[in-house]
Design brief:
It is built from 14 helices and 24 strands. It is of the alpha/beta class. The strands form four sheets. Strands 1, 2, 3, 4, 5, 6, 7 and 8 form an eight-stranded mixed β-sheet that branches. Strands 19, 20, 21, 22, 23 and 24 form a six-stranded antiparallel β-sheet that branches. It is globular, with a radius of gyration of 22 Å.
Length: 452
C-alpha cells in the first residue's frame, strides 16, 4: 500500500517529487476526487513547477476515466483556480506546493464554488480511496469517459477583480512587485494593465527552481530584494507574492514590512464601508487592532482558529463579508469566501491612491501594538510543554486562558498564543502587548517555559 501519511496534510496534498508524488498516484487522486465529490465536471489548474503540468494532466486523465468532463485552465494562480471554480460552479484542483521549496509539489482541492475540501469534508475519504486502489488496483473506468478541454480564464479573472475594486480614479502610484518567479508573474501584468500604476517588475519569469529566492515572503530574507528596490527607486510601496500567488505581503515607501494584521484591519474597514454592519472573521493570532477597527467601523468581529478550512467554514456559517489571517491570507465573500492576495493588494492600492499621504502614515492607524511575530521552538513533548505553560499561568490575577486553538493567555496589556505544529515537532509562539518592553518580557517568559 502506498504510504500517504507524508503526502496528505490539512487541506492540501504535498509530497517530495518524484519518490512519493508521481503521475500514477496523481491519476488515482483524480479518480478519487471525482468519486468523493460525485462531480460530472471539474476544473484543474497548475503552477510553474516543472512537475506540475505532468501531475495535473495525470489527475485529469484519472478524473475523465471516471466519467467527469475536465476543463484545464493551465498556468494559473491558486486564486485564479478559485475564480474558475466559483464562476463555473465546478469542483477544482490546483497543482502547487505554494511557498514551499522547489523539490515539492501538491494539490489544493475545492468543491464547486471554491468551497474547501478539508480533512472532515472529503480529504480523508479521498485518501482512503487512493490507499485502497493503490493496494487493490485502479478502479474500473466509467462506461462513458469524460472529455478534457482547455480554457483560458485569466482575462475573466482580472475583470472580476477589477469590478470589485475600482482603481481607475486613484492618483498615479509607483509599485514594485516581487513575484518570486512564481505565478504573480503571470497574473499581475493582466490585472494591473491600463491602471494608473508604474509597475517595477521583479522576478516575473516563471521558474519553479526559484533562482533568486524562495517564493515565501513570510520569511524576512525573501523580501530583502523588494525592500532594497523600493528604497532605491522611491516607490510608493512594494508587493511580494508567494509561489502560487494567493498571498500578498506589503512593504511601505520606506521598505518596512506592513503587518498582515494591519492589512486585515485596513481591508475590513473598506469592506464595512460597502457592507455596513457586516461580520469580519479574524484568527486568534491577529492583532488586537483587528477586532477594534471592525467595531469602530460598525462591524461584528468573530474570532476563529488558525487555518484555511476554519476561516472558510466560519465565513459560510456567519455570512461574513471578509476574513483575514496573520499569514497574509485574505478571504472575501465577493470572491466565493476564498482567499485572494491580489484582491487584498488592490484594496491597499485603492486606499493609498485615494489620498495623498504615504503608506506608512496610512497604516499607522491600524498598527497599534507591539508584536513578536511567530517564534518556533523545537520540543520533544508538545503536549507536556503546553501543559507546563497552562500550569504556570492558570490562576494568576487578571489573566484568562482559553484553548480554542492551542493555548491563549490574555492579560489587560498583553496576550500570547502557543500552538503545536501539525507536521513538525514545533511549538509556535505569538506575543502582542501595548508596548515593546512588555512584549519582550512576556516573550522571554513564555520561551523559558516552552524550551524548558
Amino acid at each position: 500500500m502506498t504510504d500517504l501519511s507524508q503526502i496528505v496534510k490539512a487541506y492540501d496534498v504535498r509530497g517530495v517529487v518524484p519518490a512519493q508524488w508521481d503521475e500514477p498516484l496523481a491519476e488515482l487522486f483524480g479518480a478519487a476526487f471525482v468519486g468523493v465529490t460525485a462531480a460530472d465536471a471539474i476544473v484543474i489548474g497548475h503552477d510553474m513547477r516543472p512537475s506540475s503540468p505532468g501531475l495535473s494532466g495525470a489527475f485529469a486523465r484519472g478524473a475523465a476515466a471516471r466519467g467527469a468532463d475536465v476543463t484545464q485552465i493551465g498556468l494559473c494562480s491558486t486564486d485564479e483556480l478559485y475564480f474558475a471554480s466559483g464562476s463555473l460552479g465546478l469542483p477544482g484542483a490546483m497543482f502547487t506546493a505554494s511557498h514551499n521549496p522547489a523539490q515539492y509539489n501538491g494539490i489544493k482541492m475545492c468543491r464547486a464554488g471554491a468551497a474547501p475540501v478539508g480533512q472532515d469534508t472529503g480529504l480523508a475519504d479521498i485518501r482512503a480511496l487512493v490507499e485502497r486502489w493503490s493496494d487493490e488496483g485502479a478502479p474500473a473506468p466509467a462506461t462513458e469517459p469524460g472529455t478534457v478541454t482547455r480554457r483560458d480564464v485569466l482575462g475573466d479573472y482580472a475583470a472580476h477583480l477589477r469590478g470589485l475594486v475600482d482603481l481607475s480614479g486613484i492618483r498615479p502610484l509607483k509599485v514594485v512587485v516581487d513575484a518570486g518567479n512564481g505565478m504573480g508573474g503571470h497574473t499581475v501584468p493582466t490585472v494591473f494593465a491600463g491602471l494608473p500604476l508604474e509597475l517595477d517588475a521583479m522576478y516575473f519569469e516563471l521558474d519553479g527552481s526559484f533562482p533568486n529566492h524562495e517564493a515565501n515572503p513570510l520569511d524576512p530574507k525573501n523580501i530583502v530584494d523588494l525592500q532594497a528596490r523600493v528604497r532605491e527607486t522611491g516607490a510608493d510601496l512594494g508587493l511580494a507574492f508567494d509561489g502560487d500567488a494567493d498571498r500578498c505581503f506589503v512593504v511601505d515607501e520606506n521598505g518596512d514590512p506592513v503587518s498582515p494584521s494591519a492589512i486585515t484591519a485596513l481591508v475590513a474597514a473598506r469592506e464595512l464601508a460597502k457592507h455596513p454592519g457586516g461580520t469580519v472573521i479574524h484568527n486568534l493570532i491577529t492583532s488586537w487592532s483587528v477586532p477594534e477597527v471592525v467595531r469602530e467601523s460598525g462591524g461584528e468581529p468573530v474570532r476563529t482558529r488558525v487555518g484555511h478550512s476554519f476561516i472558510k467554514e466560519e465565513m459560510a456559517t456567519t455570512g461574513a463579508i471578509f476574513g483575514g489571517e496573520h499569514s497574509a491570507h485574505y478571504y472575501f465573500r465577493d470572491f466565493w469566501n476564498a482567499d485572494t492576495g491580489m484582491l487584498a493588494a488592490m484594496h491597499v492600492l485603492a486606499a493609498l491612491g485615494g489620498q495623498q499621504g504615504p503608506l506608512s502614515q496610512l497604516v499607522a492607524q491600524y498598527d497599534r501594538y507591539a508584536a513578536s511575530g511567530e517564534i518556533n521552538s523545537t520540543v520533544d513533548d508538545q503536549t507536556g510543554r503546553l501543559a507546563a505553560i497552562k500550569t504556570a499561568y492558570q490562576g494568576r490575577d487578571g489573566v484568562t486562558l482559553d484553548e480554542l486553538d492551542g493555548l491563549t493567555v490574555t492579560a489587560d496589556d498583553w496576550w500570547f498564543n502557543v500552538r503545536a505544529s501539525n507536521t513538525e515537532p514545533l511549538l509556535r509562539l505569538n506575543v502582542e502587548a501595548r508596548d515593546t518592553a512588555t512584549a519582550g518580557r512576556i516573550r522571554d517568559e513564555a520561551l523559558a517555559i516552552i524550551r524548558g
